[in-house]
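Help! Submission page says 'invalid entity' but I think these are all valid:
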Amino acid sequence: MSQVLVVTSGKGGVGKTTSTAALGAALAQEGQSVAVVDFDVGLRNLDLVLGAERRVVYDLINVIQGQANLNQALIRDKRVETLYLLPASQTRDKDALTDEGVARVIAELRERFDWVICDSPAGIERGAFLAMRHADLAVIVTNPEVSSVRDSDRIIGMLDSKTEKAERGQWMDKYLLITRYDHARAQRGDMLKTEDVLEILSIPLLGIIPESQDVLRASNVGSPVTINNPNSLPAKAYAEAARRLRGEALDITIPREKRNLLGMLFGRRAA
Amino acid sequence: MNPFRLFTNSFTSRNSSAPQARERLQILLAHERALVGRSDLVAILREEILKVIAKHVAVDPDKVRVKMGKTDRLSTLEVDLEIRAPSSNVTALAS
């Protein structure tokens, strides 16, 4: 049965696009067929993070307006063959997204893929609303920081009232993905701990992604971190989050580098 | 990194800012959640309260603040308004 998942946050810059790419790739690496859909019309970036920016011919708006069909617009990943991208338009206005058009495209994607992952734009406007509108479940990307937590709370309220599922009176499954987590700073009391964020937002935890250079390196080269460096801490955390999405009950551990005493004193990693 | 700072940070929580973040968020979100979905309620109350008060005293519509709050045990409605100085009365008394 196919699942439509929205990756959302309210606040910008918390890691929605990175997480969409990494979760999508991780699911595809397990053999699931996955379409990642960029809803950030006018400011698309999922193509760049996936390294497909030079292969975009048609986009979501073209499909909605009937200028292209899905087969023409979908871009197949060159590394993981079950991963596809439906890019957003870079030149059009987000008003070109219509409710009926989005509904039709999502329904068509549902027929073809195990997972349809919608990368929401920041904010609570039309683009974000339409990205979550037809979702079966939501991943809320949150940084352990006050403004991100506040905006996530707002988005949770929106998921519970403005989605099709909520309007039918059904329960919307929502999972928290904490990104840019710095264990040492949380231990020192300078960053909200996972438990704090969980207690405040009271939704189940999907995973904790550590702040890491590997994430930036992956986006620099246009490859999801789970493909670019599968043994890195963030890649492992994303891969485990993807398995949890598929229903596996895995314990969630706080990802951290192992350091020896000298490493602790001088702030360097031990081998 | 200064090794001494490592220890002072690890063993004293006096300077840690996360508990403040947590507390501020809990208070703020309790307020915001009470209003979500009924965001027009405050606006409606504001208009109607203003109408009733304006019947009897002169109020400046821009100087009315209506706020709803919520704690564990009770919800509060706070109305804060400025009543214009009744200038005719002031001159009457002065003369």
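Support: the input was valid. A stray whitespace character was the problem, and the output above is from the cleaned input. Chain A touches chain B through 22 residues (CB under 8 Å).
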